[in-house]
Predict the structure of Golgin subfamily A conserved domain-containing protein.
Amino acid sequence: QVSRLKSDLRVTQQEKENLKQEVTSLNKQLQMANEKSRFLEAAVHSSGIQNQQKKLCWGELELIKQEQQLLRQENEQRQREFQGAKSELSHSREKLLHSNSSMMLSPPQHPRELQEIQQQGCPVVPSEQYQQLQHQFLQAERCQRLQEELENQPMETNMPQALLPEQRSLHADTYRRIGHL
């Protein structure tokens, strides 16, 4: 039972990591879409483009806004999944602690009791191994708390980033069309 709980704990931790990576990726995509949207808005406002070109830009801008909305929704979904995995991880950790403590609180007094426990499929862990496992578990918990603290720190999303090559070329083309270059 303990090994199954440990396995569940590892699987849940892996799921949590995967969801965390997806959330980070979605945040980056959302930030890029926001910058693209701002760039297009600035290009539309500052240029004297014909009506047809303006309509195309506004259409593209609308598509970008829809994409941003979809990314936000997907990000929210991933956040909910992440929170679910996090609570499942916590629940598994509590079950593991409870299981470990209940096994160690009442060690069998007679060899017959020990044999019955082993027949039920419950592993009996020597005291030294239990202490080693408990130490590893406490270290893992500490790492988890530190990781959660890092996750809760505000991300530096307001840092300006360099334009992508296609953004630079679009920017240059827009200025050439309006005669600034």
Q: What stands out?
A: The CA atoms of residues 107 and 146 lie 34 Å apart. The longest helix spans residues 51-105. The chain has a mean pLDDT of 74. DSSP finds five helices and no strands in the chain.
